[in-house]
């Protein structure tokens, strides 16, 4: 018996030593892989080699499954080798529960990136069915499937899934997760359906839920950030730039608070409470993003540039370690807004290069291109207008209209297309009248955006001005001024003032013209809006000449000459870039490369 006991003890000791050795080599390889992954810059090839070196050791099944998951994750997030990523994730998904749910989540993300949503949905449904004993993953997978349905505009299914998630959270005793699902339910879906009138009372109710909720500080601040993002988005969608300021300030203060809290200070005891709607680092970028959106709408373009730089810097750091698809979406939306700012401030060449950057990001993800194709063609249309390529602008806006079913974007595109037709004279009269009727701000305006309705009044005023119907133009422009002043829409205010000044100048009312053009110039300098500055300086030059103010006329003429030279130089630089050929792209995915231009149109008349 003693001999048997000794032999058993020796065998156990040998097994323990073997297990310890196995654990030590595994941990060593894992440590090296993580070191290479988190290096600056990341050394992904070496990271992959370290993880692949696990398999020749014939590790236990659990380690093998975990390694397949890690390889799939690294290949998906850091390389373009989606085939190998898919292969490793499919192997991991067949294994242990703590691995298969994460593998299912990643694999469905990969399918969505490849625009294979119909493959992703059944995978998530199966994972949801078998994850009910794992609260964190059950809640996360439910939310992920709800997001897929939301992307497909199947809001009923998305709402049902969020309801299931809220009820499950109640059953497992997670008040935090239940509250976060309730926050998502009505307001978010109503915002997506553009039912802005119905959102406000629901947001008020959600605000009360958040303020009354008792829990650890990180969870409470996380809920507050989500609620305030919804509230800010509601106001920005409604074009209410002034009304949003108190909410935006609260959101900025809230993200500062949450940035000082450490996730490991208070760990929740309930696994379902580990579910967060967005990581803290992503929340910071999101707050920068909505701040940029607000600054761009309000006409604070230097502030928009400042926050864009901060957000892009943060994104660059995050994407070194985390290539989550939402970060690419944030990057594209930031670039879309700063491109519009560049076109206003007279930096067309930079805007064109950033449009090319958006194209490159969209080339990497079919889903990203599908979601942003209309916006991309809209940006190209705006660029074409800025370099006086009106036929190309028309083609780009028409393409964008074909690709979008988003009401606000549709109204924005139609407004800009109408302005193109107005500038081209009598070539498109029937189409122009049809467009103006569809965005008639006096009755049945298609969207509830205050900003877009004010812009529609401006376009009607511009049309009446070109038709020589000056009294009608003044009525429309005064309506624009009233609306833009009410919500601090500085660009629309500046444009309306300078156009009114031009009308009074044509009518011979020089005093009233001066009263409009001087504040237009001041506001345009503050934004800064190069086109309005150019227009205002030309009017001030002519006004002062007519009034016999030679010194002021000379000063205004000098300003006009400076603005003209800046715009012309930028025009030549932009048209000389190979990316300028993007203006001819109206079909299919973004082109992979660009041919150099034969030569730009450098005529000052064509620019001005």
TrEMBL record:
Keywords: Cell cycle, Cell division, Chromosome partition, Mitosis, Nucleus, Repeat, TPR repeat. GO terms for cellular component: chromatin; nucleoplasm. Pfam families: Cohesin_load. Its main location: nucleus. The keyword Repeat applies. The keyword Magnesium does not apply. SMART domains: TPR. One of its GO terms (biological process) is chromosome segregation. It is found in: Nucleus, Nucleoplasm. PANTHER family: MAU2 CHROMATID COHESION FACTOR HOMOLOG. Belongs to the SCC4/mau-2 family. Heterodimerizes with MAU2/SCC2 to form the cohesin loading complex. The NIPBL-MAU2 heterodimer interacts with the SMC1A-SMC3 heterodimer and with the cohesin complex composed of SMC1A, SMC3, RAD21 and STAG1. This is MAU2 chromatid cohesion factor homolog. The gene is Mau2.
């Amino acid at each position: 018996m003693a001999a048997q006991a000794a032999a058993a003890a020796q065998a156990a000791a040998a097994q323990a030593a073997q297990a310890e050795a196995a654990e030590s080599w595994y941990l060593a390889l894992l440590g090296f892989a993580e070191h290479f992954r988190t290096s600056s810059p990341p050394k992904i090839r070496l990271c992959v080699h370290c993880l692949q070196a696990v398999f020749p050791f014939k590790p236990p099944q659990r380690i093998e499954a975990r390694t397949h998951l890690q390889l799939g994750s690294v290949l998906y997030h850091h390389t373009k080798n989606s085939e190998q990523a898919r292969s490793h994730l499919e192997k991991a998904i067949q294994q242990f529960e703590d691995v298969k749910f994460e593998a299912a989540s990643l694999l469905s993300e990969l399918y969505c990136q490849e625009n294979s949503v119909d493959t992703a949905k059944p995978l998530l449904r199966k994972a949801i069915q078998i994850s009910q004993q794992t609260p964190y993953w059950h809640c996360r997978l439910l939310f992920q499937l709800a997001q897929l349905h939301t992307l497909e505009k199947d809001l009923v299914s998305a709402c049902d899934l969020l309801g299931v998630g809220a009820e499950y959270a109640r059953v497992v005793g997670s008040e935090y997760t239940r509250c976060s699902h309730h926050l998502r339910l009505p307001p978010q879906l109503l915002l997506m359906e553009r039912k802005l009138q119905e959102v406000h009372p629901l947001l008020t109710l959600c605000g009360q839920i958040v303020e009354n909720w008792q829990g650890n500080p990180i969870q409470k601040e996380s809920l507050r950030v989500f609620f305030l993002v919804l509230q800010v988005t509601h106001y920005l969608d409604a074009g209410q730039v002034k009304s949003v300021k108190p909410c935006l300030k609260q959101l900025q203060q809230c993200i500062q608070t949450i940035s000082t809290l450490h996730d490991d200070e208070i760990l929740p005891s309930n696994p379902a409470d580990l579910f967060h709607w967005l990581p803290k680092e992503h929340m910071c970028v999101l707050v920068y993003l909505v701040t940029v959106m607000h600054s761009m709408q309000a006409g604070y373009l230097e502030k928009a540039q400042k926050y864009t730089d901060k957000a892009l810097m943060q994104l660059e750091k995050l994407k070194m370690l985390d290539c989550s698809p939402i970060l690419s979406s944030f990057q594209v939306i930031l670039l879309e807004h700063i491109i519009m700012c560049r076109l206003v401030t007279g930096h067309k060449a930079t805007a064109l290069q950033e449009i090319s950057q958006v194209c490159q990001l969209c080339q990497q993800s079919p889903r990203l291109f599908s979601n942003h194709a209309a916006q991309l063609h809209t940006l190209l249309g705006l660029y074409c207008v800025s370099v006086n390529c009106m036929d190309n602008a028309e083609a780009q806006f028409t393409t964008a209209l074909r690709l979008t079913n988003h009401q606000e974007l549709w109204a924005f595109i139609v407004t800009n297309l109408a302005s193109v037709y107005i500038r081209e004279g009598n070539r498109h009269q029937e189409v122009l009248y049809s467009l103006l009727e569809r965005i008639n701000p006096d009755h049945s305006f298609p969207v509830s955006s205050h900003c877009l309705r004010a812009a529609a009044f401006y376009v009607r005023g511009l049309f009446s001005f070109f038709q020589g119907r000056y009294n009608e133009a003044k009525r429309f422009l005064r309506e624009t001024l009233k609306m833009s002043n009410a919500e601090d829409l500085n660009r629309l205010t500046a444009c309306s003032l300078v156009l009114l000044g031009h009308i009074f100048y044509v009518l011979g009312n020089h005093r009233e013209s001066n009263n409009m053009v001087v504040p237009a110039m001041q506001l345009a300098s503050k934004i800064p809006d190069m086109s309005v500055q150019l227009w205002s300086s030309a009017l001030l030059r002519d006004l002062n000449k007519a009034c016999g103010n030679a010194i002021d006329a000379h000063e205004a003429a000098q300003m006009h000459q400076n603005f003209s030279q800046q715009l012309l130089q930028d025009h030549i630089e932009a048209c000389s870039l190979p990316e300028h050929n993007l203006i001819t792209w109206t079909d299919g995915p973004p082109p992979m490369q660009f041919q150099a231009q034969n030569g730009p149109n450098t005529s000052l008349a064509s620019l001005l």
